[in-house]
Amino acid sequence: MTAKLKASPTFLRGCGTVATLMQVHDWSTSRLGSPSVWPQPLKTVAGLMLHSKTPAFLAWGPDLSLLYNDAYLDILGQKHPAALGRPLYEVWPEIRNDIEPLVNKTLSGEPVYFENALFTLRRNGEDEPAWFSFSYAPVDGPNGRVAGLYCSLTETTAQVLAEQNRQAETRRLYSLFEQAPSFMAVVREPSHVYELANSAYLRLVGRQDVVGKTFREVVQEIEEQDYAALLDQAYATGKPRIGNRMPVTFRRQADEAPERRFVDFIFQPITGPDGKVNGVFIEGNDVTEHARTEDELRESKRIALQTARHLDAVLQAAPVGIAMVDAQGKAVRANPANRQLWGAHPVSQGIDGYGGCKGWWADGSARHGRRIRPQEWALARALRGEEAPRDTVEIEPFGEPGIRRTILDCGAPVRDSDGNIIGSVVAQMDITDQVSIEAVLRETILTYHTIANAIPQIVWGTRPDGYHDYFNQQWYDYTGVPQGSTHGEGWKGLFYLEDQMLATKKWRHSLTTGEPYEIEYRLRHHSGQYRWTLGRALPVRNEQGAIVRWMGTCTDIHEQKLAQEKLVQSDRLKDEFLAMLAHELRNPLAPIATAADLLSMGTLDEEEVWQLSEVISRQAGHMTRLIDDLLDVSRVTHGQVTLDRQPVDMKSIVTEAVEQVKPLLEAKAHHLEIQLPPERSMVSGDRMRLVQVLANVLNNAVRYTPNRGRIALQMVEDGNQLTLCVRDNGMGMSDELIAVAFEL
Q1: Hey, which end of the chain has fewer CB within 10 Å, N or C?
Q2: By the 8 A CB rule, do 39 and 58 touch?
Q3: Long-range contacts of 693-700 (CB under 8 A, 24+ apart)
Q4: Whose CA is closest to 695, among 609, 603, 591?
Q5: Sign of dihedral through CA atoms 630, 634, 639, 641?
Q6: Residue 4's pLDDT is what?
Q7: In this structure, are 471 and 607 located in the same domain?
Q8: Residue 208, burial from CB neighbour count under 10 angstroms (0-12, 13-18, 19+)
Q9: Whether residue 237 sits in one domain with residue 121
Q10: Domain ends where: 396, 430, 464?
Q11: Is the pLDDT of residue 7 over 70?
Q12: What are the b/e assignments for 607-633, b being 16+ CB within 10 Å?
């Protein structure tokens, strides 16, 4: 069924699909009404729009009824033909918020223009982003007021997406440029101004601010190739310039020392559309470490070759037999000392070939004397990765039947850089003479130990530095300590604490000077008693006079020491006893002398003569007993006095003691105050000794009190105890004197 065309307004004729549709469209539902009644401004603008090849639409009237041309159909998509004549916001509700401010601005009389504006359209049933460049222009109605707007637009979605892809590709390429391990830069113009430089390049030159600066400003070489001149050549000729392992010295900072680097590089000219060079692409690698590695490798090769020569010289000169085998045990090399040790040795092709080597274990173990199996030789064990540090074996050299040599056989695996065993090496030393000497030495030491243990005296020995490493059995029997526990410095713990420092000091002195060591100290016996011991030691010197050892003895002198101390003590007691008697003899002499003086005067009556005679008699008896003590050799020697205990009245003791000191008392004009109880004060004691003691105390009080002093003698009874107290105002005794005054 085809629509019947009515007579069309002239502005709709020959204008394309939309114009044809507008001729048959039912305009009754549109506020625009039939095109024939449209105001002239609307017809005019609509005609221009319909004839335009550029996408355009016209929004007219209060509801902005939409008119558009054929070029706009692709933008509408599935919204055509329903969009024709409908209000603008009903056609494009999804972008109303985006365009309404622009529409209102245009309807106010101000045109607008945007390029590549992004909108999200739903023109084909789904939201899709679309970019447009467009302009809104106000359109006046018949009354001269704005009645609508005219939009001319171009969809730029394809161009925008293409540009975005181009920019993304540019960013990707720049990222590759920036992250490239090689250094890169682009310089422009004949002066080589930096346009780009990646991180590697910035690290190389030690700067961040190169863009916009010339090459000569950034890179300052010192006595090296003129790289700026090479850039000039590349720019001028259009031909690349290439360098390999080229030295370059940068002074990265003004205050830093120059740094020498090595680089591989290419200066590649860049041509413009006109085919002329307008820049240079710089690309290269900092090969400093690689160059150093190559140098180190060459140096390593040189050293390895030199080491190989040195090793060959060592092998030739070594007095130790050395042999090498590969991973299968095949003999690779043997030095002259090895051939001299073994004789004409057939070349072994593997471990099984070692069976021809005659060897016996000689290490003193359970296998001592057993024939060595091929797989037991140090070379074979080392090939298996086993320890083979030091085997003592006896061998029979090839071609010398019956001859035995004792050797040390040491093997070690040879490994590659991954730790895999690629062979082994063995070192063999002839120790036949040493073994013989050691056997003689062992016999000598055994004999020495036997003799040392047979001596009834402690014997000990040290190294030259004083380290104690030998004690005979008598030491352990005497001290009771476990075997070996006193080696080194352990012996000090057995010394009496007060003797340790002196013993150590003397021992160090002997070690330093080489002088004989001799000291008496107290050594702990196994009973726990510390016994006096005489320690002596002499150095053992070699032919050159150097000390190679110290040998010493310890002798128990405890009994002799005690006897000596007793003798000294006896002499001391005798001297003290005699001193005491001499002192005590002076006390009775004073009253005797005084009485004798009085008797010689001849003016005394019979009673006074009798009293003085009694004084002389008593004091003479006192002296007699003192002299008896002096003549008692046993008591003098042992410092002992025999007491003659009898009942004694202490008041009479006081009287006699005062009588002895009275002459001195009167001579020094002292005042003596005596306080005695009225009754008799009986005690059991030696009368003479009591008088002696009290007279001694009073005598000291009289002697050490300044003239005209005061002395008080008081006797107090307290139950069955009697106390005599002597006080004076003299100088007194110090605490130190009090501590020893009553020892005798």
Answers
A1: N
A2: no
A3: 694/653, 694/654, 694/657, 694/724, 695/587, 695/656, 695/657, 695/660, 695/661, 696/583, 696/584, 696/587, 697/726, 698/657, 698/658, 698/660, 698/661, 698/726, 699/587, 699/660, 699/661, 699/664
A4: 591
A5: negative
A6: 44
A7: no
A8: exposed
A9: no
A10: 430
A11: no
A12: eeeeebeebbebbeebbebbeebbeee
Q: Which residues pair with 154 in a beta bridge?
A: 133
The backbone region for 125, taken as left when phi is positive above 0, alpha when psi lies in -120 to 50, beta otherwise, is left
Write out the E strands in 109-182: 112-121, 128-140, 146-155
Co-location of 354 and 461 in the same domain: no
Same domain, 41 and 75: yes
**CB 615 within 8 Å of CB 598:** no
Phi, psi for 286 (deg, rounded to 5): -80, 105
> Is 590 within a domain?
yes
Query: Quick check: is 419 in a domain?
Result: yes
Q: Assess if residue 170 is contained within a domain.
A: no
What is the CATH number for 593?
1.10.287.130
Same domain, yes or no, for 562 and 635?
Answer: yes
CA–CA distances in Å: residue 616 to residues 595, 613, 625, 692: 7, 5, 14, 16
Q: Which residues contact 529 (CB under 8 A, 6 or more apart)?
A: none
Q: Which amino acid is at 279?
A: G
Q: Which amino acid is located at 165 in the chain?
A: N
**542 and 562 share one domain:** no
Domain that holds residue 149: 10-161
SS3 for 187-241, per residue?
A: EECCCCEEEEECHHHHHHHCCCCCCCCEHHHHCCCCCCCCHHHHHHHHHHHCCCE
Domain with 653 in it: what CATH number? Answer: 3.30.565.10
Categorize the per-residue pLDDT at 81 as very low, low, confident or very high, splitting at 50, 70 and 90. Answer: very high
Q: From CA 431, how far away is CA 436, in angstroms rounded?
A: 9
Query: Is residue 308 pLDDT above 80, yes or no?
Result: no
Length of the chain: 744
Q: Are residues 22 and 87 in the same domain?
A: yes
Please indicate, yes or no, if residue 102 is contained in any of the structural domains.
yes
**Helix or strand holding residue 701 (H, E):** helix 687-703
Model confidence pLDDT, tens digit, residues 186-235: 999 998 999 888 888 888 777 778 888 888 888 764 445 578 888 899 89
**From 104-118, 504-518, 729-743, the region with the lowest mean pLDDT:** 729-743
Same domain for 567 and 538:
no
The count of domains in the chain is 6
* pLDDT confidence of residue 502: 92
**Predicted pLDDT of residue 625:** 66
